[in-house]
Amino acid sequence: MNYLLQPKKYGSLTADAGTRAIMDKTIAFFEKMGKTRLTEDFNKKIWYREFVDYIGKEQIFAKLLTPSQYGGGDPDCRWDTARNSEYSELLAFYGLGYWYCFQVSILGLGPIWMSGNEAAKRKAATLLKKGAIFAFGLSERAHGADIYSTETVLTPDKDGGWLANGEKYYIGNGNEAEMVSTLGRIKNGTDDYCFFVTNYRHKAYELKKNVISHQEYVSNFALHDYPITEEDLLSRGPDAWDAALNTVNIGKFNIGPASIGVTEHCFYEAITHAANRILYGMPVTNMPHVKKNFMDAWLRIVGMKLYQRRATDYFRNANEKDRRYLLYNPTSKMKVTLQAEDVINLLWEVIAAKGFEKDTYFAMGAADIRGPSKLEGTVHVNIQLIRKFMKNYFFNPMTYEPVRTDFTAKDDLFLFNQGPTKGLGAVQFHDYRPVFEASRSLPNVAVFMDQIDLFKALLEKAGPDTAQDMDPSFSLPLGEMFSIVVYGQLILEQAAFNNVDPDIVNQIFDFMVRDFARFALQIYGMHNSTDAQRVYCKDIMFIKAQGDDAQYTRVWEKYVFPLNGEYAMNE
Ligand SMILES: Cc1cc2nc3c(=O)[nH]c(=O)nc-3n(C[C@H](O)[C@H](O)[C@H](O)COP(=O)(O)OP(=O)(O)OC[C@H]3O[C@@H](n4cnc5c(N)ncnc54)[C@H](O)[C@@H]3O)c2cc1C
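A: This is the predicted complex of the input protein with flavin-adenine dinucleotide.
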């Protein structure tokens, strides 16, 4: 069984014919383009006009990004997180740039679908049908994560509307987006936040440059007395603020699948290269350390996929009474994207010079893979967010109805109605212990559970004091340790649904135990950790994963090595 995406034997997780057609057409587009063209376009930084035209012609963004209510009777139109995640993974498999065009369209549409502005929604639906792309104009050059400092303003004009002035930076698709959801503040006695729509064709919209050197267009644009009417206004006041954060919630969840797609394509290239490269009379994959890198890389990819798949169910089932997705989302954002960086590092150590070659996907993936962890909130920002849930997660669980695997063809409309972004510390979670208990017979899960118990005891008996809590250099590794527990929990939940071979699960928890120990070492080594904290960290560090050579060989022979030659993109 192949756990990785294989375009030439593609089986969409979503069963309906419309979805299968979207995936199949996209695969056909890229396989027809071929790797030579794909890599040349990347190397020459050519903007993807042909791709944008193709998805327009085939109505692909229209189907994926229009809630059914606005779909004009097209039965394939819906906003379905499972389907969008699957599509993200597929696009990134062929290039992060193509995915980014999809990603920022998602972000741009967020404040529109969340707004009460029906005219803007209908306009977006019509434009989607015409093949338009969209943009999200939040960031400004000087302010980074501090959106409180947004400087773009709307000033009242003499006709009862406003004039927009300001400059935005790092705005994807800003070169051709028909609707740019732009964040600003209204200057009419209030300093209310507001979202309004701009269009790149307007003469008051100055497209200044592409900020980055890539085939993606990440724009810097300026608005000079750009006229805005009620029709262009999406939201204001707290609604606009919530729309900004809730849109980022949606977009953020779409980043993990992209990182997964990049690693999968790189994996095929790497193992096929290494298994067929003969050094000292034997294939490179015969060397034990090389085998270990591939095992670790493959197991990490499988872990990423299991986590992301399970988190998607919680996303789809979210409602005002079940906001657990607010933890699983930043955990995906920081863990899955960082795991992907680890995977590429492991593979690159093996394929070395090959990874530089300009006609490989690997060179593209290696250049791009460190991006996703930094976009829509850095790792720091996401860990700080995650920490808010730690107390309730460990010490105040509650019972929920089980959340089932959800591939139903329905809109995830709650995402456009998430409500105020406050109250994260009050969100409660189902007890994490039963799912671990159910796998206790796997030695490395049992070891991991011992580490969790020690970590929990650390929090209870030697938790951070106020100064440590206020100091991110201390609280960040603590947040990493918490996130690994959440990560492990959802991996086990999904592994049970998919009947994943216990050999694989036990081997996944081999690296999980090692990672847990690594974060404990970070806290142990901090100048401001207390003696009591160090004792717990030492105990966590000194617990060792249980080796099982026979099991390791079984996984290698059954799942990992057979990926040699399994997939190669058409030339
Ligand atoms: C290729 C690319 C595409 C992008 N696309 C878009 C787009 O389409 N639309 C858009 O609006 N923006 C976009 N962005 C902006 C992007 O979302 C931000 O760049 C990103 O969120 C990080 O912000 P920053 O680089 O300004 O870091 P800063 O906010 O300047 O952060 C500086 C440092 O402070 C830390 N820090 C900041 N706040 C906190 C906190 N609360 N807790 C702990 N640490 C903190 C950070 O981790 C970082 O180490 C894009 C950026 C790039 C590079």
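The radius of gyration is 24 Å. The pocket of flavin-adenine dinucleotide is lined by residues 104, 136, 138-139, 144-145, 170-172, 212, 218, 374-378, 380-381, 384, 472 (CB under 6 Å).
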